[in-house]
Amino acid sequence: MELRVDEERILNGEEGESRQKAMELLVALGKVYGAENLIGITSAHLSGASYKTIGEGGLKYLTDQVEGGAKVTVPSTLNPVGMDLGRWKEMHITEHFAMKQRKIVELYGKMNVMTTCTCTPYVGPNIPKFGDHVAWSESSALSFVNSFIGARTNREGGPGALAAAIIGKTANYGLHLEENRVPSVLIDADIDGSVFSYSLLGQAVGSRVGKRIPYFRGLPKDTGTEEAKSLSAAMAASGAVALWHAEGVTPEAKNYDVSDLEVIHIGEKELKDAYGQLNTTEDIQLIALGCPHLTEKEIHEIAAMLKGKKKRPGTAEIWFCTSAAIREKCAKDVKILEEFGPVLADTCMVVAPIEGTFSRTGTNSAKAGNYLPTLCSQRVMCKDIAQLMEAVY
Question: Which of 4, 40, 283, 386 has its CA 20 to 30 A from that of 75?
């Protein structure tokens, strides 16, 4: 890799050990992926925040970073943690887990990371602009900003994204380069336009295309944030899709001629098959919504659905997961939701230790449908929110 004089100084340890170690990691990654140089970034989004997923090893790593004086140099947000930092007892979390989780968040804060623990930072406070180079490590979030916004990031790992945040740069390879953003398969999509249909579409496409870059034809022109985040999340979980284009929807789609691409049709049969893959139980103990986190619009729609209704005794426990900022903005709607279950911030059912309490979970998210069995030992019911709610009132 070709480094600038100031970058060489960091690599040689002239700006301290923490920055040296971060630069060493960026250079190593750059060499592995054939990067010619580093490129400046405008923001970072960091994973590796739940004590459930990083454990004692991750806690020690973060402690060493802080003791070495590590500080991020670009706006940086944090992925969901293993509990609501204020309401963890409602999630059946132990005192031991809570203590460790609070320590992790505290350590990130000492590195000047915004302790906004959400998988949807792009609805605030971390909103890239078209063409921005960023270093994001949450699979659904990076796919959303790559695709729907047109920013540029690779599928970063937690340590790599933190190193990039410390230096303010990342290795210039992969999806940072125009030639690697070209679509490689055309998806002829036929869906009903509901948010849940986008999730099923993502499940069907991700399982077929793997890491390839799909170009969608036939998505409704009014595809918005909620639909795009559901599609991004499902494709990232069922495959490894980090970028997608959609005719008339995403900003870069107009740049490409897709006439010669392989065509895959996704219609009623394929969506039904995807539904079958995700559903493994008809009896649930928990309904967990917000993977990725519920937006202001989604909370409003759920509140409208539940207004005037009452939860039947003995039905499944319900969690509504969102960011602290969105929960605060939606106080009236949140009050309605709280009649059915806690509106939790900072956390997500996938990175919470729910397996200690539950074994059968309902969700409207194909992303959660993929991860709950492997990460949380759950059998899953995956249905539209309205269908899930009908079972409890």
Answer: 4
